[in-house]
Write the structure tokens for this entry.
Amino acid sequence: MARLENDLQAADASVAQVQEKLAAKTPAGVQDEVAKVLAQIAQAEAQLADAQWNLEQTVVLAPADGSVVALALRPGVMTVPFPPVPAMTFVEDEQWVVAYFAQNEVRQIEAGNEAEIALKTYPGRIIKCEVEAIIWATAQGQLPISGMLPNTGFGAAPDMRLAVKLMPAAKDADLFLAPGARGSGAVYTNSGKMIHILRKVIVRVGAKLDWLVLKLH
């Protein structure tokens, strides 16, 4: 950037020199000299603008409130578009839970349904949630782009589960949820209400069992 600014100043100085030679040169010679210097100025200005744009691209703005983890940047490190290697990982402050259900289990689930989960990071605790949405798509529904015909033989398209997005509710809304934490839970739909009590008991018993740490080594 400093070098380009110096080049621009040098080009401006050349303008003054050309003006001093106006009296000693023919009109045609003066015009050629002026055109040459103006071209140098335009080139320096373009290079400076390009350098300023590249400098602006080094500033990365967070898409939301959150924290940067796994930062790989160090003084002298260069980041390039290819190969695509991430320089950092961004974790948002707003968190939610993704629950996976068999495809024939989600037909009764609706947004707003009550849900409860028990994570292994919080043994014995029941976290109240609410269904926000069902993600009606899986990688099974997408064929890869290649020169080969789709493989539809046995085992080529496994019975993949559908994801249901749950949002912690009430007093659990501000609870820290470790990304990647696993557990179990249930969604209480508008159908089968007579067995909701039994399902809640199962979830609570499972949460108590998370206190057990079994290691045979």
Notes: The radius of gyration is 32 Å. The mean pLDDT is 83. The longest strand covers residues 127-135.
